[in-house]
Amino acid sequence: MPKMILDWKTANAFMIDAFSGVGVPRNEAKIVADVLLESDRRGIESHGCNRFKPMYIDRINSGVQYPKTKFQIIKETPTTAVVDGNHGMGQVIGYKAMSLAIKKAKKYGMGMVVVRNSTHYGIAGYYTSMATKAGCIGMTGTNARPSVAPTWGVEGMFGTNPFTIGVPTDEKFDFNFDAATSTIQNGKVEYYARIKHPVPKGTIIDLKGKPVEGDAAEALKAIRAGTAALCTLGGIGESLAGYKGFGYAMVVELLCSALQDNVNLKDLNGKDKKGKATHPKIGHFFIAIDTNHFLGEKLCRKKAGDIMRKIRASKKAPGAKRIYTAGEKEYEIWQERKSKGVPINESVQAEMNAVRDQLKLKKYKFPWEK
Questions:
Q1: What does the pLDDT read at residue 303?
Q2: Nearest one of 25, 23, 49, 27 to 36, comparing CA atoms
Q3: Adjacency order of strands within the sheet including 163-167
Q4: What are phi and psi of 255, to 5 degrees?
Q5: How big is the chain by its Cα radius of gyration, in Å?
Q6: 297-324: burial string, b at 16+ Cβ within 10 Å, e else
Q7: pTM metric for this prediction
């Protein structure tokens, strides 16, 4: 589909006004918009404007999640906290939870905050970047609606469960590894469906244990109907170590549930007993480790940067031009996009038009309407 560029200032202002228009307090709408646009800044288009309406605006309008976020600390120690998000905005919950973890780490060396009853919080790497900017090592993970099958299983039992780690470096970008524990995430399948891109081979399995290929829209329907499931990292079976992705996914599931008494696995399907959409009740965890409580931020950044540079300078495969380290590609995409704007595909253009018209935000005239 043809894409058009929307400048960052307009995209940000529109999202803030739109979220405010459906009841999100303006200071919190700014957080939500920033998390979404950070995804597009990094080139992760599956989690940015692409999900603005269906994942958030529509869910607020349907009552599945609440625009006003009640961030409730139900237990706290000097280094830990258990938070109930009360079905508010996941980005606001995530921002506040990581901020609290960083505050504890700065005082005591380490901080961990776990969350229950949250909603989708956007790209996990946003929160680890909060930590690295503060001179901390950051970690976060989230469970999600069941769509991934365990090794040797065919039923979607757990979510794509990203496990994300950030380490501060002395380079222009910090090390920031943000990846699902499945071969592909739901957002990517949704994105492929929008742009009519086929499903990559070996990423989805049906109830007969056969790979699902072809039409991404049909694959997405099958996943949501429970007749297909995503595969863990490593793919189907154990020949390419799919059990490793399975194991990491379970680590995330446990940390998002066991410490905060949160629902898990099939209970995260976002439906009540009658099959009606309800609160997703997602769990998260956030960890911050202050480098100044070890041998100092400056040393950590230098050592981490040295490691990244040694890796990139290592011998390359024939025909390969570069070796990348986590965070590098995203930084380069931002350098290329920051003076231009965010690319908006045709279906998202229509969604933004619809939200603008619904909320009577008449001051916005988008470039695709010229």
A1: 98
A2: 49
A3: 72-76, 80-84, 110-118, 282-290, 136-142, 163-167, 175-177
A4: -70, -20
A5: 20
A6: beebbeebbeebeeeeeeeeeeeeeeee
A7: 0.93
